[in-house]
Structure prediction request, 216 residues.
Amino acid sequence: MNTIDITTSVGCSVRCEFCPQDKLIQAYQSRGGARQMTFAAYREILRKIPPDTALDFSGMAEPWLNPDCTEMLLHAHERGYEVAAFTTTVGMNEADVERIKSIPFRRFVVHLPDTERYSRIEVSDVYLKKLAHIIGSAILNCEFMTMGTLPREVAAILGRRIRRTRMMSRADSRRLRNSRRRKPRRPARSWWCSSSRAWTMPAPTAPPPWKTALRR
Prediction:
């Protein structure tokens, strides 16, 4: 099945270490494009996408930084598209969780915060309550991942161990080359919301892009 990545906004406040936001914003602004996709524009785009195409709400920014993200997902589902979402939950609220929990996601991946601050996800009481709501909602094919060490409050709510995922550079990101990296000792692992079983993703046989960049 063909897949299209949906970037709902240009510019992301989470600013993960591997993501070249400055390069993206500069390139996009030079073309005079809108910083945020409107729901009207999204509907028009969807009319041109074949129904056997899967839609991944990920792209180059947190999907829920666009306030219409939930409406976009629901509209795609109603039109019969398979959808996936990759989110830090920044911009999402508990009402959004309630509205999307019945969607049969192909994947719903929650990027968790880390103490190393590879991603700037603020761990507040509101965030922790929202995370608990997602876990309790039994969203289909929900997974969790992190690029570093989980904060204790997050680990306590999750109730299970999460191994870090290897960071992969985007556009040869300078942030990644200059940041401190640790190579995982074991393959990266994610966990399902609705099950205590883990699926394992084998480590790549070729060196990751950031490692190649370090040798230059």
Notes: Confidence is low (pLDDT under 50) at residues 179-216.
